[in-house]
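Hi V.,

Quick status before I head out on leave. The structure for the redesign project is tokenized and pasted below; the design run finished overnight.
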């Protein structure tokens, strides 16, 4: 699906609303409160009333579009350009393209990232060959601090992110961690994989040793000598994913706070894992995932994550 096809398919807000209804209730509209399918439509208000519990709801209730004052067509355009931007897109750029205030665009972008988040169960457990590596998020040291602050492991002023890549499925999961201690890494990554069927590929960092012992096999590559070890062990795929995330930070976002970093990682994971999927399928999947993922502005601004 291209942008032209999107605009032709959804020429009005009502067309967008009908598509959202189709994605949200493929078997027919049901009550959001009691799941009863006996509902009465109030066409003048574009709402339904449940005939069992008398609960009244709309197509956007309980989704990322909940109580929005922005037309659904603009929401669909924003969703498309965010999903289609390989290296991400800033709220200022969405503001320039849609003519909506930057503050509203910032909230829209975070709501869309919330809908893109892939929960456990949406991706099968990793097995086979799994590559793992870490990334340090934060700017380079200031000129006066060069030589005093570390840029990678051991850095005190950067946020640690760990990522695991399933070589067979071509999917990735990432998470920012307080540190890279062996227990911290193992506790974070173990829920992602079937350890008994996993061959773990990593560099020689000791933080992966506990996780490696829990896996079927742990192979390591010495990056001082090889990009790819003689037995084929490497972490190149996950390092390629880091390069894409790094270019997004440098080229589009410029700065990401630790408070919201997990939302940007959700966006990155979802887009990377859907890179071989058609845009139409990706678009509809995120629309379906928007159900139950309200993200009020207070949640974004009062410190609750």
């Amino acid at each position: 699906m291209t942008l032209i096809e999107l605009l032709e398919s959804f020429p009005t807000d009502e067309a967008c609303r009908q598509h959202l209804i189709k994605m949200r209730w493929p078997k027919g509209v049901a009550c959001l409160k009691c799941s009863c399918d006996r509902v009465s439509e109030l066409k003048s208000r574009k709402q339904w009333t449940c005939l069992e519990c008398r609960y009244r709801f709309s197509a956007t209730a309980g989704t990322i579009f909940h109580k929005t004052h922005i037309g659904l067509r603009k929401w669909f355009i924003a969703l498309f350009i965010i999903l289609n931007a390989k290296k991400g897109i800033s709220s200022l750029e969405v503001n320039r393209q849609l003519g909506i205030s930057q503050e509203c665009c910032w909230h829209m972008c975070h709501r869309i990232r919330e809908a893109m988040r892939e929960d456990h169960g949406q991706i099968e457990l990793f097995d086979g060959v799994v590559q793992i590596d870490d990334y340090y998020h934060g700017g380079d040291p200031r000129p006066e601090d060069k030589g005093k602050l570390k840029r990678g492991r051991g850095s005190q002023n950067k946020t640690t992110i760990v990522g695991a890549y399933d070589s067979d499925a071509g999917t990735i999961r990432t998470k920012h961690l307080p540190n890279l201690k062996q227990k911290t890494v193992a506790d974070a990554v173990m829920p992602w994989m079937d350890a008994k069927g996993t061959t773990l590929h990593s560099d020689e960092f000791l933080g992966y040793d506990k996780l490696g012992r829990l896996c079927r096999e742990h192979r390591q590559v010495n990056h001082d000598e090889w990009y790819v070890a003689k037995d084929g062990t490497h972490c190149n795929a996950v390092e390629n994913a880091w390069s894409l995330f790094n270019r997004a930070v440098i080229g589009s976002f410029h700065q990401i706070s630790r408070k919201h970093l997990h939302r940007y990682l959700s966006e990155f994971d979802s887009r990377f894992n859907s890179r071989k999927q058609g845009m139409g399928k990706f678009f509809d999947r995120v629309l379906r995932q928007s159900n139950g993922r309200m993200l009020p502005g207070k949640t974004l601004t009062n410190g609750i994550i």
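Above is the designed sequence. The longest helix spans residues 236-253.

G. will cover questions while I'm gone.

Best,
W.
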